[in-house]
# Entry
Amino acid sequence: MDCCRDVPVSKGKSVPQASISVGEEPLGAISPRLYGHFAEHLGRCCYGGIWAGDSAASKGAAAVDGPRTDVVAALRELPVPLLRWPGGCYADHYHWRNGIGAPESRPTTLNTSCGQLEPDTNGIGTHEFMALAERLGAEPYLAVNVGTGSIQEACEWLEYVNVGADSSLTRLRATNGHPEPWGVRLWGIGNETWDCGGRYDAAAYAHEYRRYATMLRHIDPNVELVAVGMEDEPLPESMLDRDWNVRFLEALGPNVGLMDHLSIHRYWIRGGAETGFDEEDYYTLLTEAESTESLIQRTAARLAHFAPAGHRARVALDEYGVWHPEARNWGPGDVPRRTPVTFEQSNTLRDALAVAIAFEGFHRQCAVLSMANLAQVVNVLQSVIVTDGASCVKTPTYHAFALHRPHIGADAIEVDVASAALPAGGRAVSATASRKEAGTAVTIVNRDFRNAADVEIHCPGNVDWSLVLTADTADAVNSAQSPDRVSPRALELHRTAAGASCGTIPAHSMATIQYSQRAL
Ligand code: AHR
# Structure
């Protein structure tokens, strides 16, 4: 049955239609690093989230002496190819020596990240984090302390983590249970140094960056160093320098080769209430997510302008995601704020669609984007997992990531989409595609708030499987009582005489179709 062409648009029911043609042209490899995550010592992300800890909130959880087994199992399945730690703003108060040695001898320090004033037992330190990364199969990405730290402290951490040669520090690592160096490649030099990381101006940070980068590379020349850049659209009332990236790159001058990645952060904050939002807010959030691509492009263009011949620094979107007004005390949002701020928020199907739309841009920009880390992995902001006591719930965003699993490490390929327009402007249906030896995967988003979309997909191969992520309302959430309200289910597809696959993607939904490479 030619299900798309047979559906008349004129029967009184408005049915957007879309035709998706998967091309041949490769756009580049989708690095696993584009599917990264972020774990900060913030709220219940690490303590009481990933790690059961001893907090009342996680009593009864599936815990072992360390990370929760249920959280680890869910994250391994996702997977988590890259994990950034320990911050965030936390990184610029973090002193790594507090987090090694016998846990009972570690000091309790004050965690001041993002305005919280919480005790930190330092029970999660370098060894605990590295063991977690290993269990998850995640590449670790560490951030050194610029705000309250020193170059000496950063060099010693790098020596402790990466160096194989004999020294007092490397012997100490062995005494603490890890004789072999871990060989962490990705190191960030501070975090948001234009704000919580020390309110530097761009030139002063460039000066500091040159020293950190030079001295760190003496310890390990193989590290990839991430410099702090800035989103060029700060809030209008903000005092931040929207030309930070240009000023920083100008000040680095001929030393730009000391930088492998320029980090930017992008939070989507204009979507109104976390749940119960109206149609306008729904589209505003999705449009914000879509605009992440142009931020990446602008940042990449700046980098290209300043890069010396032969040097290729790329854009690291090392924090991104939805940050609803209920979970912050700054920025737009005419809704009651939750106090105290716990950084926890509802995670709806709309949020999952926002991330799927961002992935389309990440794939298109895979030649210039080197990593992307969702903020944050458990409990905090747009997390993929929410824990509460013994329960461990996969959020709609978890399922959006899972539906993109086939794209990880694949080659992005061009895809042409002809789609009805939305009343709010823009296209109703968008898509991304990638190819691996095993076949081609196509992920489709129907952004229409109200109407289903009949889609016709032109892609060689047989359909291996097709899944849709949908729910009755765009603000549907998963909870301990209803953990699977938003979860993937089979998508029915039909084949046309011409060999296209056709199906109906419900309103505010996304789907992935996996084609085998077999000839028809
Ligand atoms: O993810 C929460 C915070 O947002 C991070 O600590 C900081 O880098 C950003 O401002």
The radius of gyration is 23 Å. The chain has ten helices and 22 strands. Residues 202-219 form the longest helix (18 residues). The longest strand covers residues 17-29.
